[in-house]
Amino acid sequence: MFDPFYPFDWLATQIVTKILGLSLKSHLGSSLHFFLYDVPKVLTLVVVISFAVGTMQSFLQPEKVRHLLEGKRTLFGNILAATVGIFTPFCSCSAVPLFIGFLEAGVPLGVTFSYLIAAPMVNEVAVVLLWGLFGFKVTLIYIGFGVALAIIAGYIIGMMKLEKWVESFVWQLQQAHRHEGRELDDLDSNLTWKQRWEQGRYQASEIFHSVWMYVVAGIAIGAGIHGYVPTDFITTWAGASNPLAVPLAVVLGVPLYANIAGVLPITEALVNKGMPLGTVLSFTMAVTALSLPEMVILRKVLRPQLLVIFISLVTVGIIAIGYLFNLLLATSPPVS
Amino acid sequence: MSAIKIEILGSGCKKCHQLEANARTAVSTLGIEAEVAHITDSIEIAKRGILSTPALAVNGKVVSKGKLISPAEIEQLLAP
To answer: Any stretches that span the bilayer, and where are they (chain A) (predicted)?
Structure first.
């Protein structure tokens, strides 16, 4: 198969073997190659993809999404919401305005949750890192499982009729706003291409600046593991034979929101040494979908009961995905 | 004439701070008298009908949202 990252591999190999005169089989040589190959590759992907996504996102403002989802009934609405969630920008800082805005417009609660689960889970940083470190197929599987989880969890929340556990002022706002116009919705429709690229450029530079240090540090640690830690050690502790690896990965993932850029490169080295990929998928989902700051923010609009149900559903789902994937992997040829 | 009231609506993200800085630049370029406030309460933001931050309001009216705009663009929005 065509490998778009071949030039990076070639360059890293040249530096290690020709300039430094090390064998790729040696501890130091294999560590250095890992580092010199991954850092430029991942950082290039970060810039290219976040620019593309930032530009594209100027077409899919949340107002358009809301309009799309308004009055949609269950299941179809859940599927639509989770799918749209892949493409839209999401920042946990705008989770509350988004949540209120959706409910206000008559988007059903379960459909709103499908969107709230999918949007942060499939974000550009996670996608870029998974793609750069584990390949395109694994990224697609991640997105597929993530969307499925968003659809199912949102659908269940919709079925349970939990509207009573949304803080009541949200519904009062809905009453108050019902008769107002939507003059705000047209503000963004006339962006020029130059402005869209400007949004993309800003997005790329913001993401690059916030992740590059973590990426380099993470890859450095990963490189150390790659060259020096024996495979047996990893398979014993994080391998498929340890049934607690998946839930443990989820528990570890929750407080790591900002540091996914540093942690995923470490997991790459662990996977090369025999940690199953399902565990990585669960871990990544836990980091993105169950972020602690987002939960604290959502508490403003959700009663604790609903917050607990939401967190439990997503947690159970993520753990199930990890086991399912490891099982599939164990009975079929490796994916990458 | 009373000062123009500029509000930045954003819950503390990086873009929101940049927008505030841009707004202050625009105000000083135009040499007008303006009060720049930063609203971070997400419920207040939702009440204004804003779905995506950062947003910019001039005298209580939302004129831009969901994106970062340059000082030059803010100057145009502030021009009567």
So the answer is: 34-54, 75-100, 112-133, 140-160, 211-229, 241-260, 280-299, 306-329
